Amino acid sequence: MCCQILDIDELDKKAGVLCKNCTATNGCKIYNKRPQVCRDFECEWLTERDIAAPLKPDRTGTIFMIDPDTDQYQAVTDPKRPQAWRHPLVFKHLIAKAKEGHVVVAKSGLMSWRVYPTGETAPWV
Ligand code: SF4
């Protein structure tokens, strides 16, 4: 999902477009030469053991990640499923993260929304 959902400047890849190097059967066809950004990226699903199985990115169309620049807890959705972050299971997870003290932001393409501990949401710049 990260090879599809995220925009990757190093590959001139737009958000929501599957990377041309991604194959259905063998994964990344330039694995040994993939850019550093691909080597470094790990979503929360890979690193956080407390995320429930139904929240796996390929099931929800949503990747959870900590933005390294802002420290925001981000839910980045496939632009083709811009409201995926509003799915009850995903939304419940985002509220829990907000209650932990994170600044939680749901993103889809160029649009983003802040998710507050109360469950309220608002467009976010
Ligand atoms: S280069 Fe490989 S790891 Fe990077 S986005 Fe494309 S398929 Fe994924």
What would your notes on this structure say?
With 125 residues, the chain is α+β, with helices and mostly antiparallel strands. The protein has one domain (2-123). Helix content is 23%, strand content 22%. It has helices spanning 2-5, 36-40, 44-47, 57-60, 88-99; strands at residues 22-23, 27-28, 62-66, 73-77, 104-108, 111-115, 121-123. The strands form two sheets. A five-stranded mixed β-sheet has the order 3-4-5-6-7. Strands 1-2 form a two-stranded antiparallel sheet. The relative contact order is 0.14. It binds iron/sulfur cluster. Iron/sulfur cluster is lined by residues 3, 8, 11, 19, 21-22, 28, 30, 34, 38.
Largest sheet: 5 strands, mixed
- Compute the number of strand runs: 7
Question: Helical stretch count?
Answer: 5
- Helicity, as a percent range: 10-25%
- What is the CA-atom radius of gyration, in angstroms? 15 Å
Span between N and C termini?
24 Å
Q: What is the averaged pLDDT score?
A: 94
H/E element order? HEEHHHEEHEEE
Q: Which secondary-structure class do the elements indicate? A: alpha+beta
What topology, given as strand order, has the largest sheet?
Answer: 3-4-5-6-7
Dominant shape: globular
The distinct ligands, each listed once, are: iron/sulfur cluster
Quote the beta fraction: 15-25%
Query: How many separate domains?
Result: 1
**Low-pLDDT regions:** none
Short description:
The chain is an alpha+beta fold and 125 residues long. Helices cover 23% and strands 22% of the residues. The chain has one domain.
